[in-house]
Amino acid sequence: MSLSGCGSGSDAQASASSLQFSFWGSSVRAGLTTKAVQLFEQSNPHTTISTWFSSFGSYWPKLATQISGGSAPDLIQMDMRYIDQYVRKGLLLDLSKYIPQTIDLHDFNQPLLKGSEADGRVYGVPFGGNFTSMFYNTTLFEKVGYQLPTGFNDWTWDEMKQVSQQIVKAAGPGVYGTDDASSNIGAFEVFIRQRGKELYTPDGQRAFNKQDVLEWFSYWSDMRRAGLCIPPDLSVQYSGATPALTTIVAGKAAINISTSNQIQAFQAATPRNWDCIQRRPQRV
Fold first, then answer.
1. Which H or E element spans position 42?
2. In terms of pTM, does the model score above 0.85?
3. pLDDT in tens, 208-229
C-alpha cells in the first residue's frame, strides 16, 4: 500500500481527518479490508477512511481516471510492477524520511519491503506476500495417480505437459489438462526466472530475449494443437474476471496458474476438491 504524493507533510496532517483508500480484490478481500479499516477508525476516532475497490483488471484504468481528474486516493494499493511508473510521475510519497521514527518497519519481512522500493527509497508498506501458484483438481490428479512435488520450482513445464496428457485421456471430452497460460504474465515470469533471469533490469529495460519469448509461445502453441490446454473459444468464455469464470472452478481444466491470494475465493466458488503449490519466492 502506498501514499499518494499530493502535498507536503503538513498538508497531509491537515487533511488526515478524512482519507480515501483504493484497493483491488474479491468481495472476500473487501470484507476483510473493511473490517481492518473499522478497527483503525475505532483506535483513531478523529480519522475516517472511505474506500473503493474493483477487480485487478479494471482497477488501474479507474485509478488513472481518478488521478487525471485531480482526486487521487490518499492510500493506494500498488502493484510492484507499477511503482516505478507512478514514482516517475511524482504520484507517490517517499516514506523513507518517516522511517523508523514515525513508521516502524523493523519486524517486516525485508524481501517483501524491497518490493515497495524504487531507487532505494520506500514508497509503500506491503500487505503481505502473494506468490504465483498452481491450483489443481486433486480428484483428477488422483485419478491418474500423479504425485506433485512440494514446490512449483521443482516441477518442469514438460512434466505439466505429461500430466495434462494423462488427465485429458482419463477425464474424456470437455476436460483439459490446463488453462492456456500463454498470456499470463505471472506464469511467464516463473518461466523466465527458472532460466536465471528477471523480466526487467534495474533501470526498467527488458532482461529476457527473443528466444525466451519464442520458446514460451511455442510451448503453448504445442499444447493447444495437442488439445491439452483450453482452446481459444473457452479462454474467452472463462475470462477469469471472477472465480466463477475460471476453468478450474467450472471443471473445464485440471490446472490453473494464478496468485495465492485467490485461495479463499476459489474455495467459496466450488465444491470440487483442489489444492495448490506455490512458486518459491526468489530474487536473482
1. helix 27-43
2. no
3. 999 999 999 999 999 999 999 9
Residue 283 domain-assigned (yes or no): no
Which amino acid would we find at residue 107? Answer: D
Tens digits of residue pLDDT in 196-213: 999 988 777 899 999 999
Strands (E), 205-269: 255-259
Any residues with CB less than 8 A from the CB of 64 and at least 6 apart, and which? none
Domain identity same for 104 and 149:
no
Helix or strand or coil: residue 75?
strand
Dist CA 79 CA 76 (whole Å): 10
Instruction: Choose the final residue of a domain: 92, 122, 152.
Output: 122
Let me know: does 274 contact 136? Beta carbons within 8 Å: yes
Q: What is the dihedral of CA 187, 191, 193, 195, to 10 degrees?
A: 180
